[in-house]
Amino acid sequence: MSSISGFRREDITQGKRAFSMSRTTIETAFYGNNVKRLNDLKEAYRLAKETTGTVETDMPIFKPEEIGLPDGANILLFNDGETVGRFAGARVILGEVGVEEADIAKVLREAAYNTRYKTMYHAQSYIGLDKDFIIKANLLIPETYENTLLNWLLNFQYINEIYDKIYADSKPIGDEPEIFILSDPDFKHPKFPDGLAYFDPEHNCACLLGMRYFGEHKKGTLTLAWGIANRNGYASCHGGLKRMVKKDGGKHVLGVFGLSGSGKSTLTHAKHEGKYDVTVLHDDAYIISSEDGSTVALEPSYFDKTQDYPLTSPDNKFLITVQNCGITLDNEGKKVLVTEDIRNGNGRAIKSKLWAPNRVDKMDEPINTVFWLMKDHSLPPVVKLTNPVLASVMGACLATKRSSAEKLAEGVDPDALVFENYANPFRTYPLVNDYDKFKFLFENRGVACYVVNTGHFLDKKIPKEVTIGIIEAIVDGTGEFKPFGSLPGIETLDIEGFIPNFSDAAYKELVKKSFQGRVDYVKSRNEFKAGRDALPKEALEELESIVKKI
């Protein structure tokens, strides 16, 4: 067979997923003569510290050498401008109705062309922290955005000898090629005035244009990693997971699923006053094996809100970098952080892996319990779902309120109740894939399912202490669940001050309205995006039967 310069097509080791119009356009930009490779975390820290606009605080990083940073390193602050949250309206996913690759490719080519006028940095990291699931990711970003690059290397697993060996010893993940993400926060296009977050999930590539906020880079990378996991036998999870070992040695592995502000980080990292030996997998991104129920963390660090952590909070000991917060001087003239969302909403920080003292990258013990965290004022603090169909469809109709982590389009009511499938707005594959995987866990692996309301019950706020007590009662097996009205497959736990009263006609109507909202939502998904979010007939029928019996 003829070849050019000795190369043949079959010599290229990557599979068919490595080639598409979008991926080839994006990947090619990584090899320009204006591109510098930067995988050294200490060098990335130095460059970020020296970048114009960075504030080096006088607050030392805890044990920096243990996380790959220079000895004596201080916490860095870098702030964005107007936008301090993710913007869902910028997401464009190839494969969805109305998305034409040829049209988007014109924008990608122009963006790639414009990188020639800049020095670009190419960094690599690993997504997935165990040989069962680990994939390499590549980020290309312009000079002056060294803070974003540093945050990306800190949030995911920077390249080092330990994880190089894990990667070398890992089993292949299907025919999946490496992830490639091109980012240019300064690039503007008239068709996308608020930015473009474009994904070609089948070919593991993305382009982020006009997007400064680091959360777009974090969740953009996870979007592709979760898609890879979905194609290869895993349930993709936006939530937290931990193992609680009781004094008698009994183990309980539980996962909490919720959007930003739902309490998933708080519940994942709850100390439980020493009642259990707690081990944390992660509080934001992991995957569950359909084969054996084991779990793998996708990230080593934590990207957490600073709203609930004042300067004096002991948890701030583990901050590494901070975004969209303030600075003031203490009585010694030292630069210290102003948190608690005083400057703006959604202040953020990357916290060290050391924040959770008992942290692991994989849990071999299968998951026992799933908690859907919702904010639905018709529901008491907890209900147990004993029907696998209902348990899965309630995850598909996870009710919540808008988060300050989002930039909302004009006219969107920030207080309106919304549904977010499995608390994961970053899904790029058909919704039924998640429905089937979670239903399998409930039906075939014996995983228990609960809905935990972390908002208000009627007009009364549910304190986090009540929620933590509920989890402990479930783990200890001391909670006595009783029927939730006359609704089949639903039980509740009597908690003083939060007991539902089905003899109250107004309350019954409120519950009915809540479940009818889910019925309407599932019906709307059947046509949405040409059925990409359609659920099986059984899911709708189960919800409709609940409404009829209220």
Tell me what the structure shows.
With 550 residues, the chain is α+β, with helices and mostly antiparallel strands. The chain folds into 3 domains: 9-38 and 85-232, Phosphoenolpyruvate Carboxykinase, domain 1, CATH 3.40.449.10; 51-78 and 302-351, no CATH class; 235-298 and 359-500, Phosphoenolpyruvate Carboxykinase, domain 3 (Alpha-Beta Complex). The protein has 12 helices and 30 strands. Helix 1 (21-28) packs parallel to helix 3 (101-114).
The total of helices stands at 12
Q: Which stretches of 5+ consecutive residues score pLDDT under 50?
A: 1-11
Radius of gyration: 24 Å
- Mean pLDDT, nearest integer? 93
- What do we call the CATH topology of the largest domain? Phosphoenolpyruvate Carboxykinase, domain 3
Cα separation of the termini? 71 Å
| CATH architecture term of the largest domain | Alpha-Beta Complex
Largest sheet: 11 strands, mixed
CATH level 1 name of the largest domain = Alpha Beta
Would you tell me the structural class of the helices and strands? alpha+beta
Question: What's the structural domain tally?
Answer: 3
Strand percentage, roughly?
25-35%
Shape: globular
Count the E strands: 30
Helix content: 25-40%
